[in-house]
Request: fold
Amino acid sequence: MKSFLLKFLFTSLIIYLGQLLISNVFPPKIPETAVNFNLAYHEKKPEIMYLVDSTDYVTDSEEKDHDAISLIMEKELKCATVGAIVQNGGNPDIFAAYAKFIARFQPPPDYLIVEINMRAFGAAWDKDPQFEFNEQKLFFDWFAETALMPFWPFFSNSGFINFQPANSTTTDQPPSIFLTLLRKAGLMRYPESPPNEPYPDNPLKNLIHANYMNNLTKNHRKIQSLLRIADMFASKKTKLIFYFTPIDYQPKQSFMGDKFVTQLKKNVNLVKTALLEKQVTVLDLSTSLSAEAFTWRSIMKANSKLENLYNNEHLMAQGRHFVAKALTDEIGKTFIKVCPTPTPAASQGNAPE
Amino acid sequence: MLFNSLSFLIFFPIVSLLYFLLPHKLRWVLLLLASCIFYMAFIPEYILILFFLIGVDYIAGIQIEQSKGYKRKAYLILSILASVAVLFTFKYVNFFAMNIAQLANFFHLNYSFPLLKLLLPIGLSFHTFQSLSYVIEVYKKKQKAERHLGIYALYVMFYPQLVAGPIERPQNLLPQLHAQHVFSDTDASDGLKRMVIGFFKKVVIADKLALVVNQVYGSPQDYTGMPLLIASLAFAFQIYYDFSGYSDIAIGTARFMGIRLTENFHFPYFATSLPDFWRRWHMSLYSWFRDYIYIPLGGNRVKALARYRNILFVFTLSGLWHGAAWTYVFWGFLHGVYLILYDIGEHAILLTKKSLKSLYVSPLLHIISIGTTFTLVCAAWIVFRARTITDASYIFANLFTNIDKLVFALIINNRLSIDALIFSQGKGLGLLPEELLIAIASLGAMGVYEWLQATNRVVKLPRIVRYAIYIIFVLSIINLGITKKTPFIYFQF
Reply:
């Protein structure tokens, strides 16, 4: 066994040297946004990190209030810095990968807010490759550590992530993509496990069913991802706040019947109970807003084929302000930061130019 | 637990090290525990199904050995029924229920059968067949009943081959599980080399080709011509390298501990005829069907018509073994038809080959035979991989659409047309052109390695060259492999 182990060690060394050579000839591609995140985090040192999907920002082109939830929070909390990582799809798996990365920062943020969009647990998104973000997950979960292994002796800048500062109001995901998704509702494919399609003649009903009405169990991998996030920060000073983003439940309830809300509540409670066991803060805003708080008017106007229902969670200004208030109220309970007072010279308007 | 996961990279060295550190009498406990952990990484509660099968067949084996006359047969039948019932419940009951309902609907009868909400236990068909193999061998008096329950459980559950074979015969595995194995440098390094080859096949070739196959076969109607052809060829190699990669890792893992598992593949795409292909592809399964179904039905000793009936039955059944879907059934049936046609034309084929041989065209004839066999096998794979028979028909109908345009574009080197005809259809090919080239190059490298192995040339290479080959394979796995945990295709069977 001894000679085998020696040979094995020697071979491992050869492989390591080979890998060093390869990595120097073909260095791994580190996403620019990832490097930027690292720099931005260490420059701005946000007290609050916010993992959220497209419900954060404005998607309705006709809206005049362009403040994203993260920016509203920043304004409300006066001198706090909010760092938002906006990843469409609200997939807790990718959030967990980001959280794993954030957990390594020194100093860690004081608060980590994780949005939970119940649509992300539905079969339609659950199996849709465009909402899986496998490359990002791979990068932030493993690649950042394993692929850079050969660089360990030489590589010190070890933080990268996709970072969007709070004051961004970009609409990088134009609504047309969602419309395409909706139009294709009847054609969507579920290669791994086709969800039940209890409404053979109504693709929109099937879509809503596949989006929200799965009977979740605690073993669902995305619930496990949320619990993983809770575990990551269990021994850290970072306070975790999970919240269920509001669902436009009223039109769906009238379209699908009471069973929509019943199933939604059942699933929300399941996730909530699992998280509460980890002793984190959970805010349930899932049915807190009426239909007016969601962006559907301009989309409805643009497309007459939508059967009086546009299936989304994007928020109008009142919705974004509502969510921001709920979060800042929660943070305000414990957030203590003395804002720097302006110098007398500055307050008298005599600041040197 | 998947072989291609970080968990296995930790699990394997720990189990292997403990195996050699523990005294012989405790090794079966370690391996059994390790196998339980390995299996429970998928769906923990399904281990109860395994325990049930183990319990039934363990008792049946002893009872068959101790009984005489009709009782022996009764115990055998009971054991077979128990295994088949488990397999049927978890794998086939919904398929049959849905088809009966559809049939009833066709005749305007209002009939429906409640569908069971059960997930298929991983590798169920494999360990059921392995367990059945033991009882049948005891019944045929070719194997003594195993009295050690732990060793018998390990025979069914031995983790390297638990979820996707090779399907072991008791005569091969049971004595090895009893034997005391001492650490051998040769076994350990041969085992590791075999695992490296398996990982290369899986993560560098199969998983990369899977990107093309899943993309195109996911919505074949979005494609015509070349993408369909590329994806179909890609699947032929994906399924081979996925499954033979798994077998290599399984064989290598066992070999590390000094246990030799049955070979499952023997360069099947070098087969010169369909019967030759079936002697090289998934050998442990097809010898199972041959020995326990085809031969008891009469084998080759019966008249031609009965033989053809038996071939069709066995191959259709083997299709159904793969999965509860008409595509698998049709795939098996198609291979049955191939073999019957080959049997009918065999005399003429051999005569032609003989006369052509005399014209000194033997190497060319050999290549034509390999090409023809490969083409027929690929055609059947289309049915196997397609989601529905309708999809398969679409793919067949459109496989060569616009090939003339592509040839013309290639001749005049019109890159825009080439791109439009290959890479820009539907949602794209799933791989960028340069990634596709890397996949093809990896395929070529493995092809050359397999050819060297098939012709026994690898061992003749200088030691340093062999060493370099394995180092290159490892580095390719690290740098070119798909690191996403993709389950092996045959796990679902």
Remarks:
- Chain B touches chain A through 18 residues (CB under 8 Å).
- The CA atoms of residues 97 and 114 of chain B lie 8 Å apart.
- The mean pLDDT of chain B is 86.
- The two ends of chain B are 16 Å apart (CA to CA).
